[in-house]
Design a protein that fits this description.
The chain is an alpha/beta fold and 439 residues long. Helix content is 21%, strand content 26%. The protein contains eleven helices and 18 strands. A nine-stranded mixed sheet has the order 1-2-3-5-4-6-7-8-9, sandwiched between helices. The longest helix has 14 residues, at 147-160. The protein is globular and about 65 Å long.
């Protein structure tokens, strides 16, 4: 089965900007939003910031433009994996705020990039021109300007990605870029993994911009964070600042709640299912601003495969602590997937496709009893009990291994029940694939 087919049959089965904004009020026009991606053009000349601290890096000046918005330039650093490493794919890293800095320049960012690069991933950093980055550059609302990142992400994918997994992670405002790319611009079509960290704080601006909060959000906010997950009480609204904040003022300067919702990552037309993309939110348990509840307002309603993780003793800057860096690295390293195809009836032929880094050994298990238990020393949980070992296989050059086997006819007792499959690619577990048995 080729990569395109795998992306089509993937099924979901698992369960930033700076935090200091104030909302305006009143009647305003909704900000126009483009209907297509823009264009990305490589400009001549070296990057002002140079190639960066990682070896084997090339930096490009890329201008992103589309009608109705001022063009904006990004410096894009592309670092190839070490020659001796097994090639695993591409990871795009994004900083917070307007994204005008490089991830490697943040406190703790460089060792995370070095670690992911050492795993065999091509590492890509972007830094937008201007102090306000992608949210600046002339008139236009946040949803319109979010097309800049979606366009740049597509250019990176089409220009450099050469097999393996295509992933993106970004902190705070960088998580908002990823959020818009998924909810608004269909970039789940190219992303295998999205790891928003500390946000997005722009998840629901109609909730977090008004100060004090609206009655609806005041009632919801305290309960949206899972009990015991935080070491502080997150804020429910952006703190007020003089003259308001550009993020909450949108393109109108005096937005209504409807305008704020329309500009949010989770707007009324937002896509909430990304069948080809695993989403993995990471929050710091010491992030006391609005980013945690704002991010969960979107994450909780996503209907496709997702993981939500809280890292102890970690503030808003996820990459600033060893635990935060390890959480991001682990989310990327545990990407292998298992997918089902074929006839799910007892006695029929069922295919299990394990997708992962070429050369790794995959072990496949199945079970009927709906239960789960952790594997000591490994990150992840086997989601099946009374498991049956099916067999081993080696991931091939096309990044898949396919088992094709008949389902045991004795399972005819369990029509309408589910069979759970999970693969182990040492030392990482895949998701659990759930197949409902039919007559």
């Amino acid at each position: 089965m080729n990569r395109t087919a795998i992306r089509q049959v993937r099924r979901a089965i698992l369960l930033a900007a700076s935090p200091f904004f104030l909302s305006g009020a009143g009647v305003a026009q909704t900000c126009p939003v483009p209907v297509t991606l823009g264009t990305a053009t490589v400009l001549p000349g070296p990057c002002p910031s140079g190639p960066g601290p990682l070896p084997n890096t090339t930096c490009y000046l890329v201008q992103v433009a589309f009608p109705g918005l001022d063009p904006i330039v990004a410096q894009v650093r592309v670092t190839e994996p070490p020659a001796a490493a097994l090639h695993r794919g591409t990871v795009v890293f994004g900083t917070g705020g307007g994204g005008s800095g490089f991830y490697s320049a943040t406190s703790g960012g460089l060792p995370l990039l070095q670690s992911v690069n050492g795993l065999g991933y091509r590492v890509v950093e972007r830094a937008w021109a201007g102090p306000n980055g992608w949210i600046g550059g002339g008139p236009g609302g946040l949803r319109a300007k979010s097309c800049r990142y979606a366009t740049l992400l597509t250019w990176i994918h089409d220009s450099f990605h050469a097999g393996g997994a295509f992933c993106a992670t970004g902190n705070s405002g960088g998580s908002a870029e990823i959020g818009y790319a998924l909810t608004t611009w269909g970039r789940g079509d190219i992303l295998d993994l999205a790891v928003p960290t500390s946000g997005p704080p722009l998840g629901r601006l109609d909730y977090t911009c008004p100060f004090p909060p609206t009655p609806v959000w005041a009632a919801l906010c305290p309960s949206i964070v899972p009990p015991g997950s935080m070491q502080c009480v997150p804020a429910c609204s952006f703190a007020p600042v003089p003259n308001g904040n550009a993020v909450c003022l949108t393109c109108t300067g005096n937005p209504t709640l409807a305008d704020l919702r329309a500009e949010s990552v989770y707007h009324l037309d937002a896509a909430l299912a990304y069948p080809a993309t695993r989403t993995h939110w990471i929050f710091g348990a010491l992030d006391c601003g609005v980013s945690v509840p704002a991010g969960l307002a979107w994450a909780n309603d996503v209907t496709s495969e997702k993981v939500v993780e809280f890292v102890p003793d970690t503030p808003h800057a996820i990459f600033s602590t060893p635990g935060g860096r390890e959480a991001v690295r682990r989310a990327i390293a545990t990407l292998p997937r298992i997918l089902a195809s074929g006839d799910p009836s007892p006695g029929g032929t069922l295919g299990m496709n394990v997708f992962g880094p070429p050369g790794e050994i995959a072990l496949l298990f199945l079970g009927v009893t709906p239960a789960s238990f952790p594997i000591p020393g490994l990150y992840g949980t086997v989601g099946i009990a009374d498991s049956v070992f099916v067999g081993p296989g080696t991931i091939g050059a096309n990044e898949t291994f396919v088992w094709t086997f008949p389902l045991d006819p004795s399972l005819s007792c369990c029509i309408g029940a589910t069979v759970r499959f999970q693969a182990l690619l040492l030392p990482n577990l895949t998701n659990v694939e759930v197949v409902t048995l039919v007559p």
